[in-house]
Amino acid sequence: MDWSALIEFDKELLLAVNGSSSLFLDGLVKTLTTAATWIPLYVSLFYLVLKNNDSVQKIVLIVACAGLCVFIAGSLDDMIVKPLVARWRPTHDPQIGVLVDVVNDYRGGNYGFFSAHASNTFSLAVFFSLLIRNRLLTFFLVLWSFVNCWTRMYLGVHYPGDILCGLLWGGLVGTGVWWLHGRIARRWSSGRVFVSEQYTPTGYQVVDVDVVISVMLFTFVYAILRACYFLYV
User: Fold this and answer.
1) Which residue, 75, 88, 186, is CA-closest to 123?
2) Per residue in 10-59, pLDDT tens?
3) Positive or negative torsion for Cα 150, 42, 129, 134
4) Residues paired with 88 in a beta bridge
5) Dihedral of the CA atoms 80, 86, 92, 93 (nearest 10)?
6) Backbone angles phi, psi at 140, to 5 degrees
7) What DSSP state is assigned to residue 198?
């Protein structure tokens, strides 16, 4: 395989999707890529877990598994993979750094392979999708992850290759942690099968799942309104 040609294509693809002349999009992306923006989503997921599990052990296990997803998918990447691979972020790349459209002078750290935003968000999306088993929630969680991936390329802090590898690693981590959760939680399982339309197949109330989806929608609306606000200040 011609790695040099693949790397060059990765750079060309990044420049094709990076940045724009729109101040609105700049503001929208900065809001969407900020971790604090998504705190309501994490709170709503915790509410969903708290409301639909009948023991402290089950709740602690799920929270610990979500934390494990973040640690394996993102923290190990930041601590080990990025400094070991040492691939420049586009904003710091000596070859194309001057061509990258930088938003509000945000350039990120020196190294960007692979994207922790991609791996973190996708690992959580996969884990909770497999745990809860609701198609609409799965759609929005995957959309949330993909939106975060897009913001990183828009800002010029990750190549598409960084994003793709992050998604692949995040998917593996999310699936693996879900499998581990199942192995541990089996001893506490009641063996009940949920067939009512009011519940997901794994026993989560659909009305509570809708709370998470509503929070995600409101967060997207908030990001849009915030981007509009910054156009006029």
Assistant:
1) 75
2) 999 999 999 888 999 999 999 999 999 999 999 999 999 999 998 899 99
3) negative
4) 111
5) -150
6) -70, -35
7) T
Q: What tokens were used for 149?
A: 């991936």
CA-nearest of 95, 108, 86, 110 to 153 is 108
Six-digit token string for 202: 């794994």
Residue pair 167/158 in contact (Cβ under 8 Å)? The answer is no
In this prediction the pTM is: 0.94
Instruction: Please tell me whether residue 86 adopts helix, strand or coil conformation.
Output: coil
- State the Cα–Cα distance between residues 205 and 85, nearest whole angstrom: 44
CA distance linking residue 163 with residue 82, whole number of Å: 13
Residues in the chain: 233
Q: Among all chains, which residue has been given the structure tokens 């991609």?
A: 118
| 86 φ/ψ angles, rounded to the nearest 5 degrees | 55, 45
Six-digit token string for 52: 């639909």
Strand partners, 205: 199
Q: How far apart are CA 18 and CA 106, in angstroms?
A: 13
Task: Kindly state the tokens that stand for 148.
Answer: 């975060």
Which pair of structure tokens corresponds to residue 217? Answer: 């929608």
87 secondary structure, DSSP code: P
- Residue 174 CA to residue 130 CA, distance in Å, equals 9
- Cα-based distances in Å from 7 to 98, 127, 167, 215: 18, 31, 18, 38
Tens digit of pLDDT for each residue in 59-78?
999 999 999 999 999 898 88
Helix (H, G, I), strand (E, B) or coil at 111: strand
Rounded CA-CA distance 44/121 in Å is 15
